[in-house]
Amino acid sequence: MLTLLELLQSNARLTGAELAGRLDTDIRTVRRYAAHLRELGIPVEAERGRYGGYRLARGYRMPPLVLTNDEALAVVLGLLAAEHLGMGTAAPAGAGALVKIERMLPHALREPLAAMRETLSFTANAVIGQAPEPGVLLALAQASRARTTVGISHRSWRQEHTERDLDPYGVVFHTGRWYVVGHDHLRDGLRTFRIDRIASVTPRTGRFTAPDGFDPVTHLTSTLAQGSYRWQVEVTIHGPLDAVARRLPRSGVTLTPQPTGVLVHARAERLDGMAHMLASLEWPFTIHHPDELRGALKNLADRLAAAAEQGSRTAEPPR
């Protein structure tokens, strides 16, 4: 019945045969479902004849939200995951949506979902997101889909304000921040902008065509990987490519298969963090660059050896 209601809401008119095909049932069952909806106060009209069919009464407005149990669970889990990943656009919005959904659910489903919300844990640490203005985010997404140029008011990290036209190729969410990737008319080149630094979006009349095969995610991650880091690291990890890729961060690292393993190019601000990552792997590795990384690994090894020796002395029985 809920599926029938959704079909009638999404289509001006559907014949009994069309509805039966969509619902994988027969016309008699469709008539029974329509009668049940009428009993619930939903005005489903049936018209006979060649151009007849089923439709909702003109002017009838559906309730704002009708969810099955599985759909409600999917929405709640999505909201919880978005909050954890820093993906929300505004803190009150997600909390308000959860309250409204739980309020409209029957008690039999409300209690299990509340238990899920209170007991669900994540293996990854929560991300503190940089929330953009919802209207700006939606306007950029619509312009990207419609392939229309927009004007943006942008504030750089130096607090410099510029007005520029942008052909938005795509919107990307990455580690707590929203980005838009596209052709910047002001600089006449491909640029990436943090959406939380865009104050407003103004539609333009121009249209554009994105480059064939352009992937906004690949461009963003490669751009971030080429950022200004202190150290350029090159290491060969003597292990299988798929397994190594699962253990390393997705951004800021380039992996190239080699006969002896995987050649890793990475950028790092601090070498002690890189030393910890390499030490955590189960495969041997060869450091090509920089030499200072060897010193960071030796320091880590000395600290581990000292900790092990301290534990050994503590465990000795008194004489």
TrEMBL record:
Q: Which residues form the WCX domain?
A: 231-305
Question: Known InterPro entries for this protein?
Answer: CBASS_pafABC_assoc_protein, HTH_11, WCX_dom, WH-like_DNA-bd_sf, WH_DNA-bd_sf, WYL_dom
- Highest taxon of the lineage: Bacteria
Family matches, as Gene3D superfamilies = Winged helix-like DNA-binding domain superfamily/Winged helix DNA-binding domain
SUPFAM superfamilies hit by this protein: Winged helix' DNA-binding domain
| Domain Helix-turn-helix type intervals | 2-55
**Residue ranges of every copy of the WYL domain listed in the record:** 136-202
Please state what the protein is called: WYL domain-containing protein
What organism is recorded for this protein? Actinoallomurus spadix
